[in-house]
Design a protein that fits this description.
Elements lengths: L2 E6 L3 H8 L8 E3 L7 E8 L2 H11 L7 E3 L1 E7 L6 E6 L3 H16 L12 E7 L4 H10 L8 E3 L1 E7 L9 E7 L7 H11 L1
Antiparallel strand pairs: 1-3, 1-9, 2-7, 4-8, 5-6, 6-7, 9-10
Helix pairs in contact: 2-5
Length: 194
Amino acid sequence: MPRLFTGLELPPDIVTALTELRGGLPGARWLGPENYHITLRFIGDIDNPTADDIAEKLAEVARPSFTLRLVGVGAFGGRKPHAVYAGLEASPELMALQAEHERLIQRAGLPAEGRKFTPHITLARLKGVPSSVVARYLETRGGFTTRPFEVDRFVLFSSRAGQGGGPYLVEEDYPLGIGQASTGDAASTARGRI
């Protein structure tokens, strides 16, 4: 059974900028730069026929390309932080793309995502790191920002079960904007890879 999710890859210079945020947080388990991505919709462990159906449905997406920019760092978990992330500048195009993924995946028979979509890139996982230590780390990196970058495709990733999930593999990619693959082309390719 594949464990799947949809997401966006990052340009090499953006990945390099993110790696400069590593360190200075004792007890953090930093993700490898090769695993940096923006998750659009976690799908989970599904059977192969459902994976094929989802791959076909994702090929229906016909949206223009758009730009994103990373802005700021934060932590999930409140008083018991469990992850540090880089945030994104507000993007209606990103939110619309994610909402379309949600609709298509529900049409494939999967339940609605239980959490509100919060676009981010996970940088580190935390266990037992005091919130005061995390707050100091975030304060020193509060001005983090990157150049705007173009998003001209999204991908269907697979991951292995377990903590952290990586390494992530691109099972299929779907172009945005002019010159998109036809539904049949992308779907037939996806069926052969998943």
